[in-house]
Amino acid sequence: MNKLNENEAINYWQSVLGVANSDITKKHLERLFNITIAKMVQSVNEERKLISKREETSKDKFINNEEYDFFEKEFKYLNDSLENLLEKYNFILDKLSMRTSLLKQFEKMTDSEFSHFIIDEARLFYEDEKNGTNVISTSEDPLSYFVKKRFHTKGYRLECETYYPHFFELINENINRFLSYIKEVLDNVSFDFNEIKDVYFKKYNNIILEDISLGDGDRHKKGKSVAALKFSKGKIFYKPRNGDLDVAFFRLLSKLSRFNLNYEFRDLVILNRRDHSYFEEVPYVQTKNNAEFREYYEKLGCLLGILYTLNGTDFHNENIIACGNNPMLIDLESLFHSNIFINENIYDKGFYDLLKQSDPSVIDIGILPKKIVKNFNNEDISLEIGGIGGEEVKASPFKYSKLNIQNSEIIHSRDFGLNQVNQNNPVSKFSDKDYEIINECLKKGFILFYQTVLQNREEYLSTIEKLFGNLEIRVILRPTYIYSKLLSLSKNIYIIGSEANRDVLFSKLAYERWDQLDFVKSEYNQLKQNDIPFFVSNTSSLDISDYENNYLGKLNDSTPLNNALNKIKKMTSDDLTNQVSLIDQVINLKRYKDVSTGIEFAKKEKDLNLQSMLSTAEGIGEMIVNRAVECSEDTITWVSTVLQGKEEVEFGIGPVGNDLYLGNAGISLYLTYLYKKTNNKAFYVAVQKANNYNIEFLKQEKLYEHGNVGYYNGSSGIIISLAVSNLHIPIPNFNDVVTVSLERMRRLFDECQSFDILTGTAGLISSMLCLEKLYPGKYTNQVKELLLLSYNHLFRNAVIDGDIAYWKTSNTKAYTGYAHGNAGIISALSRLAEVEEELFGFKLVDRNFASKILTYIDNNFDKQQGLWETIPGTNRYSKGWCHGPQGQLIAQTNVKLGLPELSKNDEFFKDIIEKIKNVGFGNNSTICHGDLGSLKAIEYYAKKMKDKKLLLDCKEVFGSIYNDVLSVNWKGNIISNTESLGLMLGVAGWGYEILQHIDYDEMFDFFDV
């Protein structure tokens, strides 16, 4: 092996860490490990030298293909050790059967843990053309072929021992931890055996332990996980922690009768010890009739209320079992989960502290429907993980590795598995009618419990304090998938061959987190021993420790119990209304798929009652203000329907964020004009607080480092919202806010990896042109600099292929449409071309470049569909503003104004307007996906082209939309019967359009960018 120099090592470690440059990499590693990079490189070279020596003496033997069980040495040791271990326990009758079972479990765990390693090694094997040809010609499964022909040979075992000594160290460490944990379980069972018999198997005489099955969940504390103990007369579960929280919770359920709750909850039989516990197996029993079905969900609603008061989280489908009319919570270690987590390098401290102040809502508990959505090959894959089931078998967004033969090549690919129906479903299949019942019953149980607490608050507080004081709890500092991903990556062949590379990989956790170094070092050390990091605290303490009780520090200023007690003290009828609204919306997202509005462009209404319209707009504003979530005395935000996934076809309920599209910026924009129209002080105060939230958000350096600078979905759009708002509701130090934000954007501009109008540099162009128009001359120098940077960024990063140009990164595929693709980019460049000579004194936008952007769009027009393919080759088409003809109309209108030499003819505009009229109405009434967006696009063209007849048609169509939809449905039926609050996808957008049609000239047109 060649000797590495310092630059080679740093460049590789920089790629492992994913940081900006080599200087940052060097500084980070030297600070964390307290040694010089030179010493680290020296250590790597010493390791490589040893490998080279082994290679010299063994390489000739690598070709030995004599059959040999790869893990024979390790598994023989495990087998012999298990045989000796099991011999000591007389309550195990068939020791051979248990040993065989445990060996199979360990083998399965090993296969799963090191699957990446084996697949990557197989891929290297097939780089030899002969090996690849052999398997392709036989069409044999390539992984099976590799395992048979190469993996289980003496030569390959020797080769791995030569190049991957740490691989075998990990295997042996896993074996020793496995043996240690099995011994711990058996020792505890032996000590507790008589009580186990008395508690769980009292009516039986002779009880023997037949098997131990370790769970598939995360392993903590040196490889421990939940273990199923199969006895001759039944099964119980062993947990390597005490059951204090679980015992307290079920005691609380038993005490609820004193509060006159009408539900009798099933108990869970728990045998509790200081450092471990036993739980009965809860049988999965479906409900027998409608009465049981209703009772199940009323009880679940009540449990939702209890968990809400106890700051419960992570109660997803695997943590609930349907047992007849009883929903059984089987893992309560995530009670009292406050907003204490390690700053995930997303937020700066100021905004992070703001986030920590907000109480968790019913959404955060995990019981209500919740989807994980991932984009793969330009398709959104979703998985329902909420505690309320109802999903049939479908694709899961979690990928697994496999080898495929594609086009006569061996490919290491990642594909999606299937999501199976879980035991949280009290019936096999759900109908829309069932969801209606679920919604009704959940709300009934939740309301009953919540009102009971309001009526008996002091007694309930006292009960919680007595039951849950001074109990150990688990603290989740980061989402565990982050740890799982790092552990998986550490088994990569390029990482596992070097101890230093593993160290560097795990050091990602410490990047820019020096104020939390004790926590990070504990995470690092636990990952090094192949564990998912685990932390503990106490309900009555601020202290956080690792699982060995080593004190690490504090991450909050209030104890977990006090957080819950304070939340209970703050419970009000208004909060009840808001939480019930969230329940209603989440369930409705499952009930309602497509909601047709019945609107057609031909359907017109000439008479509009302006007073009625203003009354509706004010009602919308009051609802939005009532739904606000207070983060601090001076800041508010909202929880609402949000889009999930790149393709924007999945909806969920969650925090709205800060942007113009769905978040605070768009909502604040609406409330600003509503205040101006009504002079209602409540709207004024809400705008101030929403703006304060966004100003805190804009202060974050990391916001700009991530390069999210776009108009609708990025930081520049937030600035525009503040700029508009400031004209009507003055913002203290507004000039400083804008100047500093623009300077941050300029300084960290190079981090931007997005190009579209939603999140990227095309959006920044739109925002800067907007800012110059709103405040002419005030920020011109900064505006011009950012416009030049943005244009050059687009030009430099474009993929130019002959007569076409487009943009393609891992996050932004080559879309054609307005929101994510070429149409939005050419739209921004056209607006820039309109003012380039006035601003710069020369033509900035290269017309040949602009022509290539347009050609890419033209090439993806499907004449048969009369629509543009969203992404070339996908056969997917959109009928909405974001990807469809509405956005294309806006873009081509701007081309006609700014780049007239590249403009389409009148026939094109006539055809596209007709297409929007035919396909763009009746789907829903939002701006992004529905009637209002279609209408706004046509209105935009009509205004710019001064087409009075078309403009009048649009006004009359709005009358139909207002009378038939907006005035009727604004109280909760925006998207799929939910209270979507945002501008582009919600009721703030409805209100904004109502105000615009009362007096257009007074309003800022956020489409006119």
From TrEMBL:
Under InterPro entries, the record lists: 6hp_glycosidase-like_sf (IPR012341), LANC-like (IPR007822), Lant_dehyd (IPR025410), Lanti_2_LanM (IPR017146)
Gene Ontology molecular function: metal ion binding
Fetch the Pfam families from UniProt.
Answer: DUF4135, LANC_like
Query: Which residues does the record give as Zn(2+) binding sites?
Result: 882, 928-929
> Boundaries of each Lantibiotic biosynthesis protein dehydration domain copy?
164-537
User: Which SMART domains does the record cross-reference, listed alphabetically?
Assistant: LANC_like
A single BP term in Gene Ontology = peptide modification
Q: Which UniProt keywords apply?
A: Metal-binding, Zinc
Tell me what this protein is called.
Type 2 lantipeptide synthetase LanM
Q: What is the protein's species of origin? A: Enterococcus durans
